[in-house]
Amino acid sequence: MVSPDHYHSSRPLHREINLPTIRSFFNEGVVFENAFCSSPLCAPARAALATGRYSYITANGERAHDGHETILRPTDVIFQEYLKATGYKTKHCGKGHLGTQKFMDAFDENDNAWDRWVPPIYDDELYLAYLRRLGVKNQRYKKEIMGLLQDRRTRRTSLGGWIEQADGKPFPLEAQYSHYLVQRAIQKVDAALDDTDGTHPIYLQLDFFDPHQPFSIPDGFQQREKELRRAFSALPESYERVRARDWQPASDEPKIYNFYQKSWGLYDPETVRDYRVAKCASDGSG
Question: What's the pLDDT tens digit per position in 122-173?
């Protein structure tokens, strides 16, 4: 979900982006320089990663046509199940989006409102309790990014944006949903350590919703937003090509690309600039 524009040394834009954690992976970990993603969509790509096979899942549930697979079959085996079978304590925190059955098979717990593409910021009871402990009211959008329907006039589903508390006060970083997921993951590791008594290895899978839309950018990114807007003043060549052909299909691209180019609603160049800045802020480049 993080564009190579943001971190790869061959992309000029990466010099404008601050991603110390991702860059530490390059410096201290293993880098796969010939890796590729099997699908440009989150659920199919996640299915391929879990099964080790090209995914038969072809769409996300919220945009699937009749006949499209959107969740893993109960008969599939995912690598987390192998870990569990060999003695690992398997724990999960964050986005699932592959169906409840495989989640149960691999992690022995219900999906706790996470089997979806959008963060459950209004109905995750544990998160709402976390906000109450912090004395923070739930979020609302201070500036919201809205795409357009294919008539290019009608505003469509929210793409997210910059948030504040419901009473208009700044929304602190520690109250943002991804920050909460980190705290939840730490709690799960601590509980697993107590449970294993040091006799079993632990596998924790933490799936953030960020930088997936809808974006939820808390307070404290104002200066970084100004810097990013300067860096993102020019639109990508790929967007300009689609715009130049008036969103008509390209003969050398899979049909799913054209479907999303039309349905995503990014017809207005200023909306694209907002979207790029918000995505960059959501992936931690602040």
Answer: 999 999 999 999 999 999 999 999 999 999 999 988 899 999 999 999 999 9
Query: 171 with 165: CB under 8 angstroms?
Result: yes
Q: Do the beta carbons of residue 190 and residue 246 sit within 8 Å?
A: no
Strands 215-217 and 155-165: parallel
Taking the alpha carbons of 171, 4, 35, 255 in that order, is the dihedral positive or negative?
positive
- Interstrand relation of 89-94 and 202-207 (parallel, antiparallel or unpaired): parallel
SS3 63: helix
Distance CA 130, CA 108 (A): 24
The answer to whether residues 114 and 120 touch, using CB atoms and an 8 Å cutoff, is yes
Q: Which of 129, 145, 146, 138 is closest to 164 using CA atoms?
A: 138
Structure-block tokens of residue 9 = 């040394």
Tokens (6 digits) for 144: 């919201």
pTM: 0.88
Q: Is the dihedral of CA 222, 93, 208, 149 positive or negative?
A: negative
Q: Which two tokens stand for residue 143?
A: 């500036």
Query: pLDDT tens, 2-54?
Result: 777 887 888 888 888 887 877 888 889 888 878 778 887 788 888 999 999 98
Q: C-alpha distances in angstroms, 270 versus 56, 156, 188, 273?
A: 36, 16, 42, 5
Tally of CB atoms within 10 A around 6: 20
Phi and psi angles of residue 53, each rounded to the nearest 5 degrees, phi first: -130, 160
Neighbours of 38 (CB within 10 A): 14
Q: Give the residue ranges of DSSP H helices in 29-176.
A: 42-51, 79-85, 100-107, 125-134
Q: Are 70 and 44 in contact (CB under 8 A)?
A: no
